[in-house]
Amino acid sequence: MNKTDCIFCKILAGEIPSTQVYRDEQVTAFRDIHPAAPTHVLIIPNRHISSVNDVTEADEGLMGHLFTAAKQIAKAEGIAESGYRLIINTGPDGGQEVFHLHLHLLGGQRMRHPMG
Ligand code: AMP
Predict the structure, then answer these.
(1) What atom of ligand 1 comes closest to residue 36's alpha carbon?
(2) What angle do CA 54, 56, 60 make, to 5 degrees?
(3) Structural domain spans, the chain
(4) Fold of the domain spanning 7-99
């Protein structure tokens, strides 16, 4: 998928509506349309990167910034202390459906351990 077909690039451009909760020069966060937890926010780089497979050394600052934004959003959502889960799905076996790298921020309920 290229940038022009990318649903998250369209959200960034305001061509598809979203409930935005955070934006700065590098990243944007909006609520997942099918929430899997009481708080479910997607945090994405403003520049199209398809997946973790396309991250380069030049993106290391941006990747770190996704996490500092996640921390701020968790605090604003009131789940910093109760806890939350951060997930990046990559590729078909990783369950990635939208090929614009995104960090899922999930919280507001106790989640089972992903490793069983
Ligand atoms: P992933 O499976 O990791 O690629 O996650 C893609 C996520 O994007 C899913 O949780 C979807 O519910 C979510 N999603 C898809 N389309 C939209 C949209 N238009 N607005 C908000 N979230 C969306």
Answers:
(1) 10
(2) 120
(3) 7-99
(4) HIT family, subunit A (3.30.428)
